Amino acid sequence: MMDFEEFKNSVAEQVKDFLPEKYEDASVTLQDVTKNNDTVLTGLLIKTEDSNIAPNIYLENFFEQYQDGRDMADILQNIADVRVQHEMEQGFDVSKITDFEQVKDKIICKLINAELNADYLADKPHTMVEDLAVVYAIDLGGSESGHMTAPITNSLMEQYGITQEELHDIALHNLSESQIEFKTMRDVLVDLMFPDGIQPDDPRAFMLPPEEENPSMYVLSNADKLNGAAALLDAKTMEDISEKLGGDFIVLPSSIHETIVLPVNEDMDRHTLEAMVQDVNAGQVAPEERLSDHVYMYDSQEK
Prior knowledge:
There is one protein chain. This protein is α+β, with helices and mostly antiparallel strands and 303 residues long. It has 3 domains: 4-85, no CATH class; 95-176, no CATH class; 180-298, no CATH class. It is built from 11 helices and 12 strands. The strands form 3 sheets. A 5-stranded antiparallel beta sheet has the order 8-9-11-10-12, with helices on both faces. Strands 4, 5, 6 and 7 form a 4-stranded antiparallel beta sheet that branches. The chain has a 3-stranded antiparallel beta sheet with strand order 1-2-3. Strand 5 (127-129) and strand 6 form a beta hairpin. It is globular, with a radius of gyration of 22 Å.
């Protein structure tokens, strides 16, 4: 069985055999890509001559499938299919990134772990919130095959002719205009398990937690469930939650995509909550999606 080094080289050498004829002259390269929490993944780039952009196809998950016994030819066909599904017929218009007037309404913010992203943050404007960092990106839109964003670097911000404070204010304004979702854990599970509604005779209904007059757990995210932890940065959302829950509340950093909100309970112990968060991060959250091992409390008086 091949190790990962052999696997990725084999993929790069063979993948064009599984692509349509139009990719015959495409270039195939491998590159290391630093993701959230300074996690480095191997990206496969298959770039045609008539396009100045191509998606990174990350090979780590495909290697896991290979280790689990999946046929190599099947994996190569899957990778080829992913590349075709992400085809962009025309060259990418770089003004969608460089022209401030075009991008200002598409600037978004993300909340990430500052300590674990030291390398990533080195060339990017960011704002500290407790021990977390707010970074900025341009939302390039999505389709059935994925969602594209472009990070804003220091040089790009300078090209826009704006300060970091102005960038932060723009991102927060756009956040306030976005669709933020605050739901009980039960409602989140209902949406996940029963997208068409709960049928009276569905045997899975017993798996849901009981409905509560005063729910003990909520989930805060956005409609796309992508980088939804940034919803914590929206002042009105936090004030609305505080009003709903009757004052201060606890925030558990579930991942960069969502956070869990708990009403304050006098029986709560911070060390126990932090131990729970750390256990979940270690065993159930992908390294590149971890937000923090710490627990936070929103102060309703200081906001």
